[in-house]
Specification:
Layout (H helix, E strand, L loop, with lengths): L1 E9 L5 E10 L4 E5 L6 H8 L7 E6 L2 E2 L5 H8 L2 E5 L10 H11 L4 H14 L15 H13 L5 E5 L7 H16 L3 E5 L3 H7 L2 E6 L2 E6 L7
Parallel strand pairs: 3-8, 3-9, 6-7, 7-8
Antiparallel strand pairs: 1-2, 1-4, 4-5, 9-10
Helix pairs in contact: 3-4, 3-5, 4-5, 5-6
């Protein structure tokens, strides 16, 4: 369970990114966060990973207020969360295999376990045959699948996706969405920020609409009509 209670985030007296947000997310849900640029979608996701902290309010994950945990506990929190970005954030000097292996290296896994898990995950996202290529040699869809493999290899409880289809052609974007659906079917909670109304309206999942830092609509009908 994720719970935002009266959460606000101000970057200055004139820039209010989130304004008194109240939101509950159950384990295993798939939720679209929608709204215009500057609505607060990315800020909400960044607070959940403790990249930033709210100005006021409480954010709970499994009944633990993550706004009050020590810096030394943030790494433990992030082991529960995978993050996929629009711009992939892959390391240019590492191959597909090496980019995905980084997560397990950080967790202290041995070489044999890393090899097995990376192979399994790259085959799952259908990019095993590109394992020895560098990011500059990949298509946009291949790079995004690599980023998703890196995000899920640690078996996170929650997957956050910030505009993961923004720069992809429609066919490739749908491939990414199908993969997110499959990941959600494992019981992983998925939060996806997007502007793509076609995808949102086709999937019929819960849609949380933000505007001006406020939640203006929370619909289970799966419609993006802003």
């Amino acid at each position: 369970m994720i719970k935002f209670e009266n959460v606000s985030k101000k970057f200055s007296s004139s820039i209010i990114a989130l304004d008194d947000i109240n939101l509950e997310i159950s384990q295993g849900e798939f939720i679209f966060l929608v709204g215009p640029s500057g609505a607060g979608k990315s800020t909400l996701l960044r607070i959940l990973t403790r990249e930033i902290t709210p100005t006021s309010g409480q954010v709970s994950l499994d009944k633990v207020d993550i706004t009050k945990i020590k810096e030394s506990e943030v790494f433990k929190l992030r082991r529960k969360i995978g993050f996929v970005f629009q711009d992939f954030k892959l390391l240019d000097d590492r191959t597909v295999f090496e980019n995905v292996a980084l997560t397990l290296e950080a967790l202290g896994k041995d070489d044999d376990e890393i090899r097995k898990q990376v192979e399994h995950t790259l085959k799952l996202v259908e990019i095993w045959d590109r394992r020895n290529l560098f990011p500059r040699q990949l298509s946009g869809g291949e790079a995004q699948r690599t980023a998703m493999a890196r995000a899920i290899i640690g078996k996170p409880e929650i997957l956050l996706a910030d505009e993961p289809t923004g720069d992809l052609d429609p066919k490739t974007a749908w491939g990414v969405i199908q993969l997110l659906n499959e990941i959600n079917s494992w019981g992983t909670t998925v939060l996806m920020a997007t502007h793509n109304s076609e995808i949102v309206n086709s999937l019929k999942r819960r849609v949380v609409t933000l505007k001006g830092g406020k939640i203006i609509k929370d619909s289970k009908e799966g419609k993006y009509d802003l």
